[in-house]
Amino acid sequence: MSRNPLAPSWLELPDDANALAASVWSKNAARADSGEIVIAGVAATEIAERFGTPVYVVDENDVRSRARGIRDSFEREFARVGSSVKVYYAGKAFLSTQVVSWMMADGLNIDTCSGGELAVALAGGADPARLGLHGNNKSVAEIERAVNVGLGAIVIDSLIEIERVADAAARAGRVQPVRLRVNSGVHAHTHEYLATAREDQKFGIPLAEVAATVARIRAHDSLEFLGLHSHIGSQIFESDGFAEAARRLFAVHVELLADGPVPELNLGGGFGIAYNASDVALPIDTLAANLADSVAKLAAEFGVPVPVIAIEPGRSVIGPSTTTLYTVGTIKDVLVEGTDTRKYVSVDGGMSDNIRPALYAADYTVRIASRASDAEPQLVRLAGKHCESGDIVVHADYLPGDVRPGDLVGVPATGAYGWAMASNYNYLGRPPVVAVRDGEARIIVRGETEEDLLSRDAGLESN
């Protein structure tokens, strides 16, 4: 069979449309002899029968091994250059009390971006000293709660926040550790809407204003200045951007040392993952070694000790661990420009459980999960059920040409920003999140029912 000309240039015609790319699927996902996909010893059909579809399926051992692997790699490499590291799990990617307990047990800190995320972290038993609070518009109530519970670090994002945090800490009778988010001017190789270190954007303080801003922080007895914080983007596949950001930050870091301690430097993160077989993510060991070498070289050039480094690996912990299962509903072949055919395969979810394809034109992979097939591959577009033409889950992939209604299909690498950005559009309930491990499956976030949605409708109270 020849390659469909409607396919994007990066999408290869597969020899086997049943194959699971190891770089994309969770570590414990495989096809059984029966042909169906099994994740951590639990068959896709069993999961669908017990919990329904759509359903997010989290490979627990995969999540935790990635978390420990990132921690171990960075701890080893920065110990090699005479320093230490703090690794922060990105709560915004996906947070539940169960995930909180995993991250605490596996030695990671957690970065939160709202009062709600902070509440989940605390409910999950997180040590407040291992939590951070981010955000460009933290409310006074969020700041006060963070201070009162003894949060390990609050990231100052604007001048007005200095006074708000200092006042809350003074009233609580404690000294609050803070970092200062800065714009390094380094632009990551990423989607425009994911690049967050640009000068004309809502986050952080320009480098030229850092010295004066830190002086204002240090003027408050109720604040402890930890260091600078940088975030150059997300879904990053190389280390050059981090090295350049570190160089720009280090010059300011050294300048600040003249007036007081600067124990830490937060280089951010946003490490990329593979969403399809053409994506090549930099191995964590390589990334950790490159960053440690860059920081050590800078410290030697400036003649200062290597600071404690903080990193935020982002989606790379949770993203690859999760597969979303859907049930196929309708199928139609669409003749495009009168010459080539694209098969539209519609499923029982869509942009309400994964907004990233519509929001960022993000590409994903899909495979039939309930069976294998010898049928020739055919180009498909996996569409959602919402009343939007942009409701696409997978823009382009090849599935066996005999894909049919009732099939289960799996979309891997949905652990980050799937459930976290889910909505109730068209009054669909958000799907459940199921953790699988060693042949067992259990709910870690309950799915929403129609009764849940109606329970918030105040109009029913008067009927």
Q: What is the fold's blueprint, element by element?
A:
Elements: E1 29-31, E2 37-39, E3 42-43, H1 44-51, E4 55-59, H2 60-80, E5 85-90, H3 97-105, E6 109-112, H4 115-123, E7 131-133, H5 140-149, E8 153-156, H6 159-172, E9 176-183, E10 205-206, H7 210-218, E11 223-229, H8 240-257, E12 264-269, H9 284-302, E13 308-312, E14 322-336, E15 340-347, H10 356-360, E16 367-368, E17 377-383, E18 392-400, E19 408-412, E20 433-437, E21 440-445, H11 450-454
Parallel strand pairs: 4-20, 5-6, 5-13, 6-7, 7-8, 8-9, 9-10, 9-11, 11-12, 12-13, 15-17
Antiparallel strand pairs: 1-2, 2-3, 4-14, 14-15, 14-19, 16-19, 17-18, 20-21
What would you say this structure looks like, in words?
By secondary structure, the chain is α/β, with parallel strands linked by helices. It folds into two domains: 29-60 and 320-454, Beta Barrel (Lyase, Ornithine Decarboxylase, Chain A, domain 1); 109-316, Alanine racemase (TIM Barrel, Alpha-Beta Barrel), CATH 3.20.20.10. Helix content is 27%, strand content 25%. It contains eleven helices and 21 strands. The strands form three sheets. Strands 4, 14, 15, 16, 17, 18, 19, 20 and 21 form a nine-stranded mixed β-sheet that branches. Strand 20 (433-437) and strand 21 (440-445) form a beta hairpin. Helix 2 packs parallel to helix 9, helix 5 (140-149) crosses helix 6 and helix 8 (240-257) runs parallel beside helix 9. The longest helix has 21 residues, at 60-80. The mean pLDDT is 93.
